[in-house]
Design brief:
The protein is α/β, with parallel strands linked by helices. Strand 2, helix 2 and strand 3 form a beta-alpha-beta unit. The chain has 21 helices and 22 strands. It has two domains: 144 residues, FAD/NAD(P)-binding domain (3-Layer(bba) Sandwich); 292 residues, FAD/NAD(P)-binding domain. Helices cover 33% and strands 15% of the residues. The N and C termini lie far apart (64 Å). The strands form six sheets. Strands 2, 3, 4, 5, 6, 19 and 20 form a seven-stranded mixed beta sheet that branches. The longest helix is centred in the middle third of the chain and has 26 residues. Bound molecules: NADPH dihydro-nicotinamide-adenine-dinucleotide phosphate (NDP). The site of NADPH dihydro-nicotinamide-adenine-dinucleotide phosphate (NDP) has 28 residues, from helix 8.
Length: 611
């Protein structure tokens, strides 16, 4: 059936004829041939016999430091942007004694670990990098390279004097609340025993690399590593490329997500032979990276980062803005939706009309992405394999002006593994797919991370709250928090992350709002000499009810998507744990809550507010 459809009525934009039913059938078929019954269990952690995949290639030997048996005001678990933002916002709130505890040998988190060739942020750097005005820095590129981002993380550490008390190459192994002294006992793998009044966990959402459970994976005799631990000693070169040691090497890269899209052009340029093993193609849109215009940088006035971040956030979460300040692939998709659903009729459209309009905008976007593959890839059969057949937000969209062209090189082969649910087997010297053994010297796993799993929710970092209760015990019937940050029974413990909170593709912006809120709460607790911070059971129950009531119903959408981490590997969860009104409303709600007496629900035995 064909729809020359205009969702906004006769005056709306004319859409080209799209055979929606045929497209939907194609999407469904592509999903069905990829579903694996074992879902997320197809992966294995980089632990145990695969533990060497997790080793730190960047650290000097672990420093020989004395065990710490001391006391600080705040322990922050994790030194990525979440932890750095928590530290910075606490400093601004007047807190002196802050210890960040970090597994890597420096600050940076995901930007410490991920240094693969071609690494860049895929959100505009002017809105992605936090605390730019505070540090006094304007990124050199619209999409900054990873090393520039890592150096910015270090600059935040210096600007806010967070190196002073930080400990690196150290992992927190347990948190136990001491009922008698009202403080946390923090233990680590370096036998530290630190007492802390407050603990903030910011251990990241992409911190645990995963490997596919491919039969024979541990029999391979060549060289292997995961993209998040790039082995430059083996490949030569650096994040800018020039992987000269691969000139006589046959390399297999497994996976074609956002990481692969950035590193494949360098591998293709330098390896003798590159095989890219693809299960589901990414959508690859225009990048258009460019150096920062110095005149523009000089023209920026105070508050510019907030204005720009807020503008982006509003636009990509369905809001209306007068001007699109970022103007890139993310915002153009949002603008396309708005063109099809003008603001004056948005609320009035019946739900099925609205859904139809979104579908149309989506199909139009994806048709453009597929047409781009035909434009850039010379071999028609390879081009067909590189076309994504699913809705735009089924997978993390990617952007590149060199990935697709790499498949025109004579030394690069795309091996599609959709029908066999991925690579079939790995042998001593080869990767097997479609019955063919591809002999290689090196296998690089670009197979992603366990997403959204923080140590304290997975149980990897055991937490014992008041009376020794563990978090899994308290959350037996599901997570229970107030605003996602804290839970009844776990005084003075704050979590940063997406759980029962509101998220965005620009996650660092979300982390900054979270860190600011937590720092404000701790500041109020100190000013009003609260015994501790702990939500009442009633406030917590009310928030869980709000989450349930407003939970976005994405089940139907996600059930139609090809499998991946966005839809729990094809088994979407019925219950969403995010705030359905979105991040703009959530941030406003937090500000209002702070201003209008909300703190009463969390400050225990506090002096009255005099302000
Ligand atoms: P992803 O999880 O996105 O990709 C993993 C890839 O491995 C997928 O293509 C997957 O295929 C493939 N795969 C898994 N198992 C097999 C198998 N058995 N055989 C063949 N292929 C297999 O990981 P990434 O590291 O690419 O990206 C993770 C996230 O990191 C991104 O979504 C993004 O949020 C973030 N990121 C951000 C960047 C930035 O600039 N801000 C840059 C890079 C990453 P399938 O799709 O079929 O499951």
């Amino acid at each position: 059936m064909s729809y020359p459809h205009s969702p906004s009525g006769p005056a709306g934009p004319q859409e080209p004829d799209l055979d929606l039913e045929a497209l939907k059938a194609r999407y469904r078929a592509e999903r069905d041939r990829r579903i694996r019954p074992e879902g997320g269990r197809q992966y294995q952690p980089v632990a145990g016999r695969f533990g060497y995949y997790d080793e730190d290639p960047y650290a000097e030997a672990a420093p020989d430091r004395a065990r710490l048996h001391d006391r600080v005001d705040v322990v922050v678990v994790g030194g990525g942007f979440g932890g750095l933002l928590a530290g910075a916002r606490l400093r601004q709130a007047g807190v002196e004694s802050i210890r960040v505890i970090e597994k890597g040998s420096d600050f940076g988190g995901t930007w410490y670990w991920n240094r693969y060739p071609g690494i860049h942020c895929d959100i505009e750097s002017y809105i992605y990098l936090p605390l730019l005005e505070e540090v006094g820095y304007v990124p050199k590129w619209k999409y900054a390279p990873g090393e520039e981002i890592r150096q910015h993380a270090r600059a935040i550490g210096r600007t806010f004097d967070l190196y002073r008390d930080a400990v690196f190459q150290t992992q927190v192994t347990g948190l136990r609340w001491a009922d008698d002294t009202d403080e946390w006992l923090v233990s680590t793998d370096r036998e530290d025993r630190i007492r802390a009044r407050y603990v903030i966990t910011a251990s990241g959402t992409l911190s645990e690399a995963k490997l596919p459970g491919i039969p024979g994976i541990d029999t391979f005799r060549g060289h292997t590593f995961h993209t998040s631990r790039w082995d430059y000693a083996y490949t030569g070169g650096d994040a800018d490329g020039n992987l000269h040691r691969l000139a006589d090497k046959r390399v297999a890269l497994i996976g074609t997500g956002a990481t692969a899209v950035q590193c494949v052009p360098h591998l293709g340029a330098d390896a003798q032979q590159l095989y890219v093993f693809q299960r589901t193609p990414s959508s690859v849109d225009v990048r258009g990276n460019r150096p920062t215009d110095p005149q523009w940088a000089a023209s920026l006035s105070p508050g510019w980062t907030r204005r720009r971040r807020d503008n982006f956030l509003a636009l990509v979460t369905g809001g209306q803005v007068a001007e699109d300040l970022v103007d890139d692939g993310w915002t153009s998709s949002a603008r396309l939706h708005q063109k099809l659903i003008p603001s004056d009729s948005y609320q009035d459209l019946p739900p099925e009309e609205r859904e139809r309009a979104y579908e149309l905008a989506d199909f139009q976007k994806m048709n453009g992405i597929r047409a781009r593959v035909d434009e850039l890839v010379e071999d028609p059969a390879t081009a067909e394999l590189l076309k994504p057949w699913y809705r735009y937000m089924c997978k993390r969209p990617t952007f590149s002006d060199s990935y697709l062209q790499t498949f025109n090189r004579p030394n690069v082969t795309l091996v599609d593994t959709a029908d066999s649910h991925g690579v079939e087997r790995i042998t001593e010297d080869a990767v097997v797919a479609g019955g063919t053994a591809y002999e290689v010297d090196c296998i690089i796993f670009s197979t992603g991370f366990r997403v959204g799993v923080s140590g304290i929710t997975s149980g990897r970092l055991p937490v014992h709250g008041r009376g020794g209760t563990t978090l899994p015990e308290a959350w037996r019937d599901g997570p229970r928090t107030l605003h996602g940050f804290y839970s009844h029974g776990f005084p003075n413990l704050f979590q940063l992350g997406p759980l029962q909170n509101a998220s965005s593709v620009n996650f660092v912006h979300v982390l900054d709002e979270q860190a600011t809120h937590v720092a404000e709460v701790i500041k109020a607790a100190r000013t009003r000499r609260a015994r501790y911070v702990e939500p009442t059971a009633e406030a917590e129950a009310a928030w869980v009810a709000t989450i349930r009531e407003k939970a976005p119903d994405q089940y139907a959408f996600q059930a139609e998507c090809t499998p991946g981490y966005y839809n729990n590997e094809g088994m979407p969860r019925k219950r969403s744990e995010s705030f359905g009104d979105g991040p703009v409303a959530f941030h406003a709600l937090l500000r209002e809550w702070r201003a209008n007496g909300g703190l009463r629900d969390v400050l225990v035995d506090a002096a009255p507010d005099e302000g």
